[in-house]
Amino acid sequence: MKVLIVGGGGREHALAWAVARSEKVSKVYVAPGNGGTAMMGGKVGNVALKATDVDGLLRFALDESIDLTVIGPEQPLEAGIVDRFSGSGKKVFGPTKYAAQLETSKVFAKEFMRRNGIPTAAYEVFRDYVSAKDFLERTTVFPQVIKASGLAAGKGVIVAETRDDAMRAIDDLFEKRIFGKAADEVVIESFLTGQEASVFVLTDGTDYRFFLPSQDHKRIGDGDTGKNTGGMGAYAPAPLVSEEVLKKVEKQVVIPTLEGMRKEGSPYTGFLYIGLMIENGEPSVVEYNARLGDPEAQVVLPLLESDLVTVIEASLNGTLGEVSFEMKGEAATTVVLASKGYPDSYEKGKEISVVESKLKELDNVMLFHAGTSFDGGVLKTAGGRVLSVTAQAPTLKESIDLAYSAVGYVDFDGAYYRRDIGAKALF
Ligand code: AMP
Ligand code: GLY
Fold first, then answer.
1. 265 lies in which domain range?
2. Distance (Å) from CA 187 to ligand 1 centroid
3. Considering only CA atoms, which residue is closest to atom 5 of ligand 2?
4. Any domain includes 410
5. Is the C-beta atom of 293 inside 6 A of ligand 2?
């Protein structure tokens, strides 16, 4: 079968790798892909179509008789790619535009959690400057967390330590409109303490399967300091999500979320990302995403023993209960290499050197590309997060050590990476 993967980041490189492993698959197209998916060779190739070019992607899928399309990022979901493909009789894995609102509208997600009794921070919704400021004048407890409701490339959340910070954030959102329409509605919610973890399920709307729980590292600096980024590294399984915690997540979050979406006439299908804050073993939902996380996908997909394509097909056919979804029983760590200056402005076009011979000597190491492209046959940086190096090993500690030794064989001018990925889990 022929599979189309939509997106061009590290997550999509990992998806392409996982899909290409399947014996059922004869061809994998990645649109637009990156330098890494271009280099995979064999069954995998890039297609020069943007992830948001829904018309172009649908035409391509129809012309090339694509059997299955898997959506990586959130923007095409918001653009209704799943509705469009399904409407044209093309098999596609991901939530509908309506169901994707769990990610694309924080107001929708918070109200949904409230009406379904799903644990999350207390909140209020504001649609104008005056009522938001009034609320903050009356608020005595800080920090408060201020969120643009719409998609803002992971930047629409401000943790305001003081009332002044919060007032400035409200100015930025409602007056300066720094996130434009994404902040037509704003959520102000209470600050949760604890540790964050990411739990992903694959679901047909009723039945579901868990990937291994993982943990991202959102801040740019070691020790979780500095600005928020798309994610600087991840590991799985995260010991923070014990079996007991996972049971609570299943009972208090996964089941009521899927039931709630069914009740609303929009069953949620695809990958569902549950961003959690866990304190004293009690989970609370920080956010939903309508997709796999990046860079978490680069650790959870390599740890999947079962054939991803078989599981996705079963999910689309309503037979998820009949297929196995086994994990490898190992641990994985991924370290992101970013351009100097990221998450602020950075330069592109730096030549990337990879000591392939050395990397090949290291078993269980994979290089997933994100912001890379070929320029006259030379691999160059083309984004903020450039590559991630994933290592798999029997224990978390070994996977961390292996990932960092592999990082030594990849370089470009100004390459930056955190030195403490996974360290939090080694207590
Ligand atoms: P979100 O896009 O909603 O996941 O928010 C981005 C990041 O902001 C999260 O990963 C958390 O680190 C932080 N954050 C969001 N909401 C809260 C909250 N209520 N309490 C504490 N931290 C939060
Ligand atoms: N790693 C966080 C995200 O994908 O949203």
1. 195-322
2. 12
3. 293
4. yes
5. yes
Residues 354 and 246 in one domain: no
Residue nearest ligand 2's atom 2 by CA? 293
Which atom of ligand 1 is found nearest the CA of 147? Answer: 3
Query: Of the ligands numbered here, which is closest to the C-alpha atom of 385?
Result: 2
CB of residue 121 inside a 6 A radius of ligand 1: yes
Smallest-distance ligand from the CA of 219: 1
CA distance 234 to 199: 12
Considering the domain architecture, whether residues 421 and 374 belong to the same structural domain is answered as: yes
116 alpha carbon to ligand 1 midpoint, in Å? 21
Ligand 1 contact via 103 beta carbon (within 6 Å): no
Using most ligand atoms within 8 A of CB, pick from 214, 216, 300 the residue to mutate for ligand 2: 216
pLDDT digits (tens), the chain, 427 positions? 999 999 999 999 999 999 999 999 999 999 999 999 999 999 999 999 999 999 999 999 999 999 999 999 999 999 999 999 999 999 999 999 999 999 999 999 999 999 999 999 999 999 999 999 999 999 999 999 999 999 987 788 999 999 999 999 999 988 889 888 998 899 999 999 999 999 999 999 999 999 999 999 999 999 999 988 999 999 999 999 999 999 999 999 999 999 999 999 999 999 999 999 999 999 999 999 999 999 999 999 999 999 999 999 999 999 999 999 999 999 999 999 999 999 999 999 999 999 988 888 888 999 999 999 999 999 999 999 999 999 999 999 999 999 999 999 999 999 999 999 999 999 7
Q: How far is the CA of 157 from the centre of ligand 1 (A)?
A: 7
Q: Give the count of domains, the chain.
A: 4
For ligand 1, say whether the CB of 192 is within 6 Å of any of its atoms.
yes
pTM value is 0.96
Q: Are residues 250 and 361 in the same domain?
A: no
CA 301 to centroid of ligand 2, rounded, Å:
15
